[in-house]
Amino acid sequence: MKFTLSWLKDHLDTGASLSDILNALTRVGLEVEGVENPAERLSGFRIARVLTAERHPQADKLQVLSVDAGEGPLQVVCGAPNARAGLVGVFGLPGATVPANGMVLRVAAIRGVESNGMMCSTRELELGEDHDGIIELPAEAPVGTDFATYASLDDPVIDVSVTPNRPDCMGVRGIARDLAAAGLGTLKPLDVAAIAGEGAGPDVRIEDAQGCRAFYAQGVSGVTNGESPEWLRRRLLAIGQKPISALVDVTNYVMIDLGRPLHVYDRVKLGGALVARAAKDGEEVLALNGRTYALRAGMTVIADDVGVHDIGGVMGGEHSGVTTDTTDVLIECAYFDPDAIARTGQALQLSSDARTRFERGVDPAFLDDGLAIATRMVVELCGGSPSEVTRAGAPPLEPRRYAYDPARAETLGGLAVAPERQRAILTSLGFAVDDDWKVTVPAWRPDIDGSADLVEEVIRIEGIDNVPSLPLARPAGVATPTATPAQKLERRVRRAAAARGLDEAVTWSFVSEPAAAAFGGGAWTLANPISEELKVMRPSLLPGLLSAAERNLKRGAEGVRLFELGRRYLADGKDGAADERATLGVVLAGNARARGWRGGKAAAFDAFDAKAEALALLAAASAPVDNLQVMGADGVWSGEAWHPGQSGTLRLGPKTVLAAFGMLHPRTLKAFDLAGPVAAVELYLDAIPAKRGSGGFMRAPYAPPALQQVRRDFAFVVPEGVSADALTRAVKGADKATIVSARVFDVFTGAGVEPGTKSVALEIVLQPGEKSFTDAELKVISDKVVAAAAKQGATLRG
After folding, report:
1. CA-CA distance, 672 to 239, in Å (whole number)?
2. Residue-averaged pLDDT of the chain
């Protein structure tokens, strides 16, 4: 919501400074998003008189002017056709910045002739669209004066963020009312005297009473539509509204000024009575934005005997719009149901200033006054004779009264405010307060629903900063932990991922349909998404991470190491409800190692990098990594997004999948516009078994073994189909009491190894107990290792 300071002061009698007003706006809940003064952009532009104008010696369409800007003649090259001696216009001095294009003016030679600045058009100063010639000011305009000051452009534009529950502040007057209640001045009375009309009013009716509760209209005949006066055009331009014509500008002005949307029709273009009715399937309307909309049954429209002219409360139609040839108009002031307006706007994906106000709730008691103000402005600016007012239907004016206890300001709001002060605050905001504290809510405040809302009004005007900060009461003794086991797990895993050099990303929980399809498809699609690219609840965290990796790689990143901890959304919840699963995703793309004089060429990430990350993060999550099995895809875990020969899962038993890791399928990478291999990990935190027992905050005491470990190496020849993981697990289980670990340190195929087999070398670590091993004991353990390996088809290599 934008407005100028002078516009605000039309409603608020105040001597407060701009800074005081801005602070008060934020204090009462109207957050200031920005302040811009047009005069600051026009510094360096002065009123100047053209003394002489002669043809440029090297160009037929250019003139060499002698310009007086208050400090003596300056030579200026100008191409404007209306430049002539005696003209008074706006001159940009060297060093000034042209608002329209950001160009900094300086002394320069144009076709061999020195030019010291520029004579400006309205478009160059962003004061209009005229670019056919330079600005022409009255001859008596004071030469040398700052143009912004002369044109009354030293008027700051304030932009405030209005929350959806405050439709009354979608007009300048509502904002002024809040400031007056906050003690920054007095709210000026509003002149709503109606102009007496003659003759019957327009024929308007209501057939859709649910969508349109009230439809008031007044005609004005004999109008002359043209350009709005300068003050009106300047105000609309200042807030980003494009002036169109006096009749249209009046409706826009009243909407911004008073929060009351209106519409004006060219009566000559109407055929029969104007009716607020429900649309029919197949009807279409060409809206004022130039687009044709197909209407659905149930949408409220304004139509005549010929067809639809207006999407009620959202946007008018082009066919019945006013033009410079319009002489007879019908001014509409209606009350549309907020819910119906919201549904229509969402279905048509059509936004407008009128829709924004109607769906939040306009003042239902302001129809007569809004119509009277608009009609008076039309007559004053365009002339004409008004008719009588026609009123169809009735707005919802049921009074809302609530019993209020002033003591609740302290018990609920935390601030003690004297009862009479509370009465004054509520009265200044438009509430009627009886002696017994029965409070009647004004019609322009649809957000008030009970005494708690009245407390909020008192506290925000009195000042929420005045509410004392008090600690919450707590029981005596040591505080109990508040983090749940799941939250503690997520914290550990997040810290471990960051400590391993991964960068945390936060991506959308929604992805596009193609992105979800690459990972098996999403189970949940939003009915009203932010955009088509954010339509499906993500079935995996990897789509968002892959998109982030793609953006980083295209911007020059050599290696990308990203992780995200969030939720994926499945469809196997209770009774078919959405199931949210805590998950950690990792994407490794680009180079794992940069090229160097020791390492040689750059190396890309591979599946073993992904497996290392998965195991390290599972260890940080206290998962039993020593008991995990490496398995591939099956019916439990769908691996279509993964490379079939370079990916796998880490499991506890055949069914409990704790993580998926490996390289992604080239088809998946193509869907995300990624070139080159990409490794990834998904940790399913909800599948990690909880630790047995209660360890509390204490760690187990450190008790190093008394005797030194013993290491033995074994080389086995195994069939190529036997996985190293299966062989390692078998060997480790040969003597669980003494074998601490087993790991692969070499795999060999070639000379000396039979075709169809491979040599796998393992390092076995043995931990003695109370005494050191004897040779005989080591021989027994070695025999057990060889026997366990033989069950996997392995033989000891000679």
Report:
1. 41
2. 92
